Amino acid sequence: VDLEATCWDDSRDRARMEIIEIGAVEMPSANDEPTREFSRFVRPIVDPTLSDFCRELTSIRQQDVDRAEEFVSVFADFVDWIAGEAPFILCSWGRYDLNQFRTDCARHHLVLPSAFERHVNLKKHFASLLGLRKELGMERALAKAGLPLIGTHHRGIDDARNIARLAALVLPQLEAAGVIAPL
Ligand code: AMP
Ligand code: MG
């Protein structure tokens, strides 16, 4: 999964950030090609107007979020989508996405499903599997793996597709090491 959120060039206030896109792909097992995708914009309620910085970073347009449903309904659809074929392991590049789900669930008085906590931080495992001293952002990790970046960086669905290609390298090794159970 990869989330995009409201952001500003002059503020790093995490509590102010709200999800504006949920992008996700499903891999049936550790190194399978993705089979299903989830790609939805979300209308933010705290700051409904996207900053210039946010529109430029994400390429998400004001009309995309204006026409979108609010978090409560998009998140319900996402939970249906992801839990439809249980069990699942939620993976993302870093811990940001899980934390942002927590923030938005709390804001909307929703309970984050406990299965989301079985989360794999691919960025951390990629660094430790390669013996890197520092964790790499998605773009640098793709370059390290010799994979071109496909689509538009900082669009949730495109980031999720690229992260899935990195996951296909990382997850089989985590399975072999017993860090995660085979799906
Ligand atoms: P990403 O998955 O890397 O596209 O980032 C997810 C979200 O983090 C973005 O939608 C922004 O809200 C925020 N973000 C990412 N990079 C930056 C940045 N350089 N400055 C401020 N916010 C950022
Ligand atoms: Mg992203």
Spans where pLDDT lies below 50 across 5 or more residues: none
Question: Can you give the helix content as a percent range?
Answer: 25-40%
- Percent range for β-strand residues: 5-15%
Q: Separation of termini?
A: 17 Å
Provide the list of bound ligands, each named once: adenosine monophosphate, magnesium ion
How is the biggest beta sheet arranged?
Answer: 3 strands, antiparallel
Number of E strands: 5
Structure class? alpha+beta
**Helical stretch count?**
7
Mean pLDDT, as a whole number?
95
Radius of gyration: 16 Å
Order of helices and strands: EEEHHHEHEHHH
**Sequence of strands across the biggest β-sheet:** 1-2-3
Q: What overall geometry do the principal axes of the alpha carbons give?
A: globular
Short description:
The chain has helices spanning about 50-60, 60-65, 70-85, 95-105, 120-130, 140-145, 155-175, and strands at about 1-5, 20-25, 35-40, 90, 120.
Written description of the protein model:
Helices cover 40% and strands 13% of the residues. By secondary structure, the chain is an alpha+beta fold. The strands form 2 sheets. A 3-stranded antiparallel sheet has the order 1-2-3. The protein has a two-stranded parallel ribbon with strand order 4-5. The mean pLDDT is 95. Magnesium ion is lined by residues 2, 4, 154, 156, 159.
